[in-house]
Amino acid sequence: MSVRLKVIKYKTRKFSGAGRLELCSSLLEGGITPSIGLLRVVKQFVHIPVYAMIRPRGGDFLYSDREVEVMKVDIELMKSHGADGLVLGTLTEDGRIDTELCVELLSVCRPLPVTFHRAFDMVCDPVVALETLISLGFERVLTSGCDISALEGLPLIKRMVEQAKGRIAVMPGGGISERNLQRILEGSGAQEFHCSARCNRDSNMKFRNPHVSMGASLSAPEYGLKVADVAKVRALNAIAKNTL
């Protein structure tokens, strides 16, 4: 089980049964590179692998030369500050895996394992893209089956698992909850899954200015927080253990 963690809120060093953390910032943008401070503090508190997201911005996965420079520096920094693995993805303008750039980035990532994130869900041909990732040496691919959620994309995820034949881990992610996890695991044949397991928490601020927001109109509420829910992680882990 992989849990996407943005705001730290946990009680045990094993994070209630999660097998791995994907560490990122700004979940509203789908996750971007976390700060070094966040990585270092998380590493102090958990004893499971922490995979750091390498994504310099939200939006598409077609990166400029300067953005690639940022990604390479971020990879080196995450490695030197204790990341156990990395999560990244790059595409060409025509919706294919950017093989040349992936080779460059993977060489910087070594010897850490690397997951190809949900940039995969934006490819034009998932069958070809999966073979490309296998040939490049990615450890796993995170996908919602090129659909709005893993449940809707279940048929493709199942085909991907069958196509992979153990050469790469196919990890369903996107809208996974206690209500649909069993169906997704049984229907896909996947052996692991990814979720944010988050819940809403109200701010502790007593004085609140309702006229000012620090973000754009589509940003999160100023006095609301998204946190990883330990109870949800436990429940999802129990479902997975009973299913797999």
Automatic annotation (TrEMBL):
GO terms for cellular component: cytoplasm; nucleus. The keyword Cytoplasm applies. Its main location: cytoplasm. The keyword Isomerase does not apply. Pfam families: CutC. Keywords: Copper, Cytoplasm, Metal-binding, Nucleus. It is found in: Cytoplasm; Nucleus. Signal peptide: none annotated. Homotetramer. Belongs to the CutC family. HAMAP family: CutC. This is Copper homeostasis protein cutC homolog. It comes from Paramormyrops kingsleyae.
